[in-house]
Amino acid sequence: MIFEISFLIVGLMQVIAFFILGTTGFGATVISAPVTNGLFGTAMGVPYGTIVCIPFLYYLAIKDRKNISWKDLAKIVALCAPGIFIGQKLFYSISPQTAKISIGTMICLIAIMNIHKYIIKPLVLNEVEDTEAPDTITPDTITRKIFRYGCLILGGIVHGAFTIGGPLITVYTLEAVKDKKKFRNTMTSLWCVLNVWNAFTQYQNGAFTLRLGSALLVAMPLAAIGYFLGMRFLEKINRDQFLRIVYMLLLFIGVNMFLRNVPSDMLKAVLITTSIVFVGYIFIILKKKNTNKEQIKNA
């Protein structure tokens, strides 16, 4: 075994990343990727992110197997599997940069719409809606089904091509699995399948080295601390709080994916446009808030 200070730095990052994983069932690799890949390089950082998750994923999947939506997990695997193979074939004909910009934009839009619904409306505008009440659940229309399954199939394709399909698969699972625990455990079970597949591919490509093994030994105890704290935290929050965390995390993933791939000559225009839209949105929210206050006074 060898030791480098970078092993400890990346290991400490796993405390935060695995707290997120223990709470939501996804996001650990994306949260820690800037530090992991920055210090290790992608050749070691990518397999590191894959392998460090596997023991914890299997622990939770086995321990909480009764709280897995097996029906939805079967759908995810069945619809993603063909897409993964299609994506692998399309790898050389699709620009990774274009794919990441497109997926990042889509994820941002989905996250922003739901942040407005679960954060802005109840916490800023004081428009309270009990999303767990039966009479407030949105009907499962044909349009919603097409959107849900479309995200799942597209997620399989882009995951096969560039291993970035996770956010789209998450969108499907959020729509299909309403219970917070079942959502987390279903996502965890999916990563059990995908991470083992990715690890096997990485092993075949010669990614497993003594340096990687040593870094993983340092990370595992630290990752365990974050993971079990995240599991405990999930028990203390309700579904709306859970969804707020999940959609904020999705927004972070989408913004990160977009900004890291948008061409530098377009970045300034994108930032200016986004700032104008954001200011307009803030203006609308403040106007709506004042209107709501007036209605309450006059009631």
What is the alpha-carbon Rg in Å? 20 Å
Beta-strand percentage range: under 5%
- How many DSSP H or I helices? 12
Low-confidence segments: 131-136
Structure description:
It is a single chain. The protein has helices at 5-24, 28-40, 42-51, 54-63, 70-90, 96-124, 142-162, 166-176, 180-204, 210-235, 239-259, 264-298. The protein is mostly helical and 299 residues long. The chain folds into 2 domains: 5-262, no CATH class; 264-299. The longest helix is centred in the last third of the chain and has 35 residues, at 264-298. The termini are far apart. This is Probable membrane transporter protein. Its main location: membrane. InterPro entries: TM_pro_TauE-like (IPR002781), TSUP (IPR052017).
SSE map:
Layout: H1 5-24, H2 28-40, H3 42-51, H4 54-63, H5 70-90, H6 96-124, H7 142-162, H8 166-176, H9 180-204, H10 210-235, H11 239-259, H12 264-298
Task: Provide key terms for this protein.
299 residues, 2 domains, mainly alpha, 81% helix, 12 helices
Would you summarize the structure shown here?
With 299 residues, the chain is mainly alpha-helical.
